[in-house]
Amino acid sequence: MNQRGFERARDCGIDEVGMVIVSTDTYNMKNQNVVTQESIDNWLSIAAEAKSAGIRTSVVIACSFGCPYEGEIDPEHIASIAEQVLKGKPDVLGLADSVGVAVPSQIKKTFSLIKELAPSIPLRTHLHNTRNTGLANAAAAVEAGVSIIDASTGGIGGCPFAPRATGNIPTDDLLYMLDRSGVETGVDLRQVVKTTDWLEEQLGRAVPAMVPKAGIFPENAEINMQ
Predict the structure, then answer these.
(1) What gap in Å lies between CA 190 and CA 218, rounded to an integer?
(2) Is residue 175 assigned to a domain?
(3) What is the pLDDT of residue 219?
């Protein structure tokens, strides 16, 4: 989030750092105690140092599709932030639906603007399933050329600064959708489902993911017997 954080990470010998920049001043102040432009300026400074040290970088623009404090976010506003961020030459650029308000048309529109700015940069998205649109948004992101999708086992998680926020899209459900859509991920869905079963035991409660409950089609009989 800032220079001090980067220095600590660098001194630990890491080979990649990630920076978060929130699209609105109100949320950015709550999350990072600075306005958005100051985070952008911090990123540009960190980017230069990281490149000199041979460290890969990624940047995520949070609240890219809506903010709980400032409301609707214009895709052109996200593009203007991305234009500044790209001056630091990140290895990956991401857009986050931090509070789970996006719909597929927003995803496609906003990412299309990013693709116009930087056609070759790998794109990432970070989606929450607060309003049950997360998987639809992930499918739209893939169609828009996004190759990195954040998810959480079982769909756990949330955000202390996002009122009533739920977790990220479930890794289990995302993998099922991608597998059935012919998108190769290299991740074994069956092992993720087993991990979710273990996670529920540790938490002592059910998690949001649907695939562990219903089973993997057409392997549901095998999975349910394990």
Answers:
(1) 12
(2) no
(3) 77
Sorted by sequence, the CB contacts under 8 Å of residue 33 that are 6+ apart come out as none
Question: Whole-angstrom Cα distance, residue 194 to residue 171?
Answer: 12
Residues 114, 152 share a domain: yes
Which residue has 């009989």 as its token pair? 221
> Model-level pTM greater than 0.90?
yes
Q: How far apart are CA 61 and CA 23, in angstroms?
A: 6
Torsion sign across C-alpha atoms 188, 154, 110, 34: negative
Q: Number of helices (H) and strands (E), helices first, in the chain? A: 10, 5
Residues 154-186 pLDDT 10s: 999 987 777 777 889 999 999 999 999 999 999
Selected catalytic residue, list 12, 63, 67, 159: 159
| Chain-centroid distance, C-alpha 98 | 8
Q: What is the pLDDT of residue 220?
A: 58
On whether the CB atoms of residues 30 and 62 are closer than 8 A, the answer is no
Q: Are residues 211 and 123 in the same domain?
A: no
User: Is-catalytic flag, 12?
Assistant: no
Nearest to 62 by CA among 11, 21, 25: 21
Domain ranges, residue 218: 185-226
Q: How many distinct structural domains can be found in the chain?
A: 2
